[in-house]
Design goal:
Blueprint (H helix, E strand, L loop, with lengths): L2 E7 L3 H12 L6 E8 L5 H11 L3 E6 L4 H11 L4 E4 L5 E2 L3 H11 L4 E9 L3 E4 L8 E2 L6 H5 L7 E4 H7 L9 H10 L5 E12 L15 H15 L3 H25 L7 H5 L1 H16 L12 E5 L1 H10 L6 E6 L3 H5 L17 H11 L2 H5 L7 E4 L8 E5 L2 E4 L2 H6 L8 E3 L4 H21 L3 E4 L6 E3 L6 E2 L3 H21 L4 E3 L10 E2 L13 H18 L1
Parallel strand pairs: 1-2, 1-4, 2-3, 6-10, 11-12, 11-13, 13-17, 17-20, 18-21
Antiparallel strand pairs: 4-9, 5-10, 6-7, 6-9, 8-10, 14-15, 14-16, 18-19
Length: 545
């Protein structure tokens, strides 16, 4: 079987040799290599012509500059292979990419095979696939996949037949991949996944998606086009959640690059335009999705009380994280509301893994919530109770400290001889009821709405979105989750006006991803869960309003 490799080329002379070498040296030899010079003004054309003479599999085409999307359309129209992959001319691929991907897509007789990649720049970073199934899937029966599938072209092999019958053309706008991929995904009968990093993406090259800031405003147009196509086809309501996830991902990615990615060396004038980009992106989301969710949450201010999972959910909710005003993590409500320490204990000079962990422990030990939390400029308190599962350390009457993961990491000698009060004990229940009432009084006095995210321990883990494996200590985890449910109910009794948010509508996503950076632990979720819970939060606030 012939595999067509489509390479749009535009002014990439510095990287083009390595790109072409990585393609012609593939272990799979039955290739048709289509090099499309999109009006380059550097020596890219002469490099392509040289390689055309050296390798008879190369088909070189010169055209006037119309953009990468149009060049790719040209390649699709003239390709003779049964399968197609796309390679950007500043990137390079692993020697066995085509062989491994062709073998995999043939095995499952799939229309698309998605593979993972590396970011190549000042660092080389492997990026495992966020959403995949064990063998094959289709979007119609696995809607969640549309929202987590990468909106890029160069990490996939397509059957030529799928691309031809889909009859989807790319524009020359930024994020044309987003619009193209989503349309093709829903037409594919089978999609398979290969979690091996086979593509190398130069994310810091001047002029690519990461640094082509002059085109950032075009992202709105692509998102508009994507949602309008699904609306016209009568599929917007069916897929609105996944379309929101794709739209949000693009906007969040761009804003994060402008604000946080110093290695991209973006000009000062781009950073100064950040607020305008944020405003336009927020308005675009509101235009399409406000009938389903409260998009005004993008500009509200939050006080966060809860676990690491809660932080990730809030990051998945907000385009701009500056609205996360304060957070108090890795602390029980009992510890938050208990009396100050009666002993002299300073942790500020201790060594921690990172500043966030240090801050969490110091806040818990020094009881900063009661003394320093600022409510007056916050629109919502958002909280979960996942850290209630930690034991309490009783320092003295009325003073408790959370024995969190972060505190255990510090392993302070000062606490070793104090009494522990375990989660699930009758004493612990009595304490929770007492201090939950105190917490509720404090929050009610501020007249601030409370959102309660009902996070639990995961009872299963997986690398796939359609299969999972239960933890060996499943019965113990279920017992803990049952106790957590009691705690959530008690808190909601104290806060009858609070907005509860749970995962009942998407409980298939409640599992730990085996390749999550913190390892296979039941206290962490997968990226699909975090994204979906952020949407659920926004829906619940809208429904309450």
């Amino acid at each position: 079987m012939i595999v067509s490799v489509i390479v749009p080329v535009y002014n990439t002379e510095e990287f083009l040799e390595k790109c072409i070498q990585s393609i012609v040296n593939q272990t799979y030899r039955e290739l048709e290599i289509i090099m499309i010079n999109d009006g380059s003004t550097d020596s890219s054309g002469s490099i392509c012509r040289k390689w055309e003479r050296l390798d008879e599999r190369i088909w070189y085409i010169e055209k006037e500059n119309e953009g990468q999307g149009i060049a790719r359309n040209t390649g699709i129209q003239i390709a003779n292979g049964e399968y197609i992959i796309f390679v950007d001319s500043d990137d390079y691929i692993e020697p066995d990419l085509v062989e491994k991907v062709y073998t995999h897509i043939s095995k499952y007789k799939a229309d698309i095979c998605v593979y993972s990649h590396r970011h190549v720049g000042e660092q080389i970073i492997e990026l495992p696939l966020a959403g995949k199934t064990k063998q094959v899937a289709d979007i119609r029966n696995n809607k969640e996949l549309l929202g987590v599938m990468p909106p890029i072209l160069w990490d996939k092999m397509f059957t030529t037949a799928l691309l031809r019958r889909s009859n989807v053309l790319m524009s020359n706008r930024m994020c044309e991949d987003l619009v193209f991929n989503a349309q093709v995904y829903v037409k594919a009968e089978k999609i398979c996944f290969l979690d091996i990093p086979l593509y190398n993406y130069r994310y810091t090259r001047l002029g690519n998606f990461s640094t082509n800031y002059q085109k950032y405003s075009e992202a709105e147009q692509s998102v508009d086009e994507l949602n309008e196509i699904f609306r016209k086809n009568g599929e917007f309501e069916r897929y609105w959640i996944q379309l929101y996830e794709l739209s949000f991902f693009i906007f969040k990615n761009i804003l994060s690059r402008i604000k946080n990615r110093e290695e991209l060396h973006l000009p000062v004038e781009v950073k100064n335009y950040y607020n305008e980009f944020f405003k336009n992106y927020k308005n675009c989301l509101s235009k399409w999705f406000s009938p389903h969710m409260d998009c005004s949450l993008q500009e509200k201010s939050y006080l966060i009380l809860g676990s690491y999972n809660l932080r990730v959910i809030m990051h998945s909710l907000l385009l701009n994280e500056k609205f996360l005003g304060e957070d108090y993590g890795y602390s029980s409500i009992i510890s938050l509301m208990s009396a100050p320490l009666a002993i002299n204990l300073s942790l500020k000079d201790r060594a921690f893994t990172n500043a966030y962990r240090k801050r969490c422990v110091i806040q818990d030990v020094e009881k900063e919530f009661c003394s320093h939390a600022r409510f007056q400029d916050k629109d919502y308190v958002v909280m979960d109770l996942l850290d209630e599962i930690c034991d309490l350390i009783e320092i003295n009457d009325g003073c408790y400290i959370t024995e969190s993961e972060f505190l255990k990491e510090l392993n302070p000698e000062e606490f070793k001889n104090f009494r522990r009060i375990p989660f699930g004990s009758e004493e612990r229940r009595r304490l929770f009821k007492k201090y939950a009432e105190r917490f509720a009084e404090k929050v009610k006095a501020q007249n601030i709405p409370v959102i309660v995210i009902k996070n639990f321990l995961c009872e299963s883990h997986s690398v796939y979105y359609d299969t999972s494996t239960c933890y060996e200590n499943l019965e113990e985890i279920k017992k803990i989750n049952g106790e957590l449910e009691w705690h959530y109910q008690q808190l909601l009794l104290c806060l009858p006006d609070a907005i509860p948010v749970d995962s009942e509508e998407f409980d298939n996503l409640v599992f730990t991803h085996d390749k999550f950076q913190f390892g296979c632990k039941p206290i962490y979720y997968n990226i699909g869960y975090y994204q979906r819970m952020a949407i659920q939060l926004s829906q619940c606030v809208r429904d309450r309003s």
